[in-house]
Amino acid sequence: GITNLKLFESDIGVVTKEIMDSLIRVRSIIELKLDFSWSNIKDDGCKAVSQVLQHFSTTLTNVDLNLKFCYNITDAGLRDLGNTIAKCSSLVHLQLNFICLDKITDIGVGDIASALSFLSNLTRLHLFFDECPELTDRSVEGIIGALRAPSTFTEVTLYLWNSQFTDGPILILSRFLRQLICIKTLTISWHAKSEDACYEIVNTISSHSSLTGLTLYFWSEVITDRSIMTITKKISSLNALSSLELLFGP
After folding, report:
1. 3-state secondary structure the chain
2. Whose CB has fewer CB within 10 Å in the chain, the N or C terminal residue?
3. Rounded to the nearest 5 degrees, what angle is found at the Cα of 216, between the Cα atoms of 157 and 250?
C-alpha cells in the first residue's frame, strides 16, 4: 500500500468529501502531508481530514497539516482535528501550520494543546500560530504546558508571533526549553515586548551545547544594537552549531 502520500489542495480551493474518502481506501499510510494553504477549506473539511487521520491513527508516524491563510476555519474545525490527533499515538513527527487563521480563539487552540498531551512518542514537533488575532497568552501557555515529554524532542519549531501576546509566558517557555536535553535543531519565533524576554530565551538556549541548528526570530520594537550584540555573544558559546539564523525586526 501507499505509505507516503502528499496532497496539495491549494489549487483546488475546497476540500471535498470524495477526496478524503479516496484516501481511506488506501491500505496503509505512515506519512501524510496535506497542504490546504490559501484554500477555501471550512470546518466540514477539517472534519473530513479528521476522519482520514482517525482511519490511520495506529499507523501514522508523520503528519504535516498546512492550513495557513485558511480564513474560514473556526474553533469547531480545530476541535475535530484535536480530538483525532490525540488518538494518533504512533506519531513521532507532527507539523501544524495555523498562520493567519483570524477566526480561531484560545478555545480551539486549547483542543490542539489537549491533543499534544497524549503524544508521548513525539521527537519532532513544528507548530505555527503566527498572526491569529483572537489568540492571547492563554494559548501559548496551553500549548507549551501540554508538551509532556520535552526531554525526547530532537527537533522543535515554535512560531508564536502575535503582536497581542505579552511576555507573560516567557518563564513557561524558558522552562520548556530547559528540558530539551536531546534537542539538535531549534526554531523560535517570538514577539518580544522587552529585551529581558529575549535574554531569558537566549540564556536558556545557550545551555544546550549539543545544538547543531538554531533559528531565532525576535520581532520587537525594543531591540537595540547593544541587545543584539549581547544575544550574539551568548549564542557564540554553542560550539556544535553548524547552522545559525538570526532575525531581528519590528
Report:
1. CCCEEEEECCCCCCCCHHHHHHHHCCCCCCEEEEECCCCCCCHHHHHHHHHHHHHCCCCCCEEEEECCCCCCCCHHHHHHHHHHHCCCCCCCEEEEECCCCCCCCHHHHHHHHHHHCCCCCCCEEEEECCCCCCCCHHHHHHHHHHCCCHHHCCEEEEEECCCCCCCCCHHHHHHHHHCCCCCCEEEEEEECCCHHHHHHHHHHHCCCCCCCEEEEEEECCCCCHHHHHHHHHHHCCCCCCCEEEEEEEC
2. C
3. 120
pTM for this structure?
Answer: 0.91
Report pLDDT for 13.
Answer: 45
**CA dist 142 → 83, 135, 208, 224 (Å):** 16, 11, 24, 31
Binned average pLDDT, 10 residues per bin, the chain of 250 residues:
51 58 80 88 90 93 94 96 97 95 95 95 94 92 86 93 84 92 94 90 94 93 89 93 90
pLDDT of residue 7: 57
Given strand 93-97, what is the order of strands in its sheet?
A: 4-8, 31-35, 62-66, 93-97, 124-128, 155-160, 185-191, 213-219, 243-249
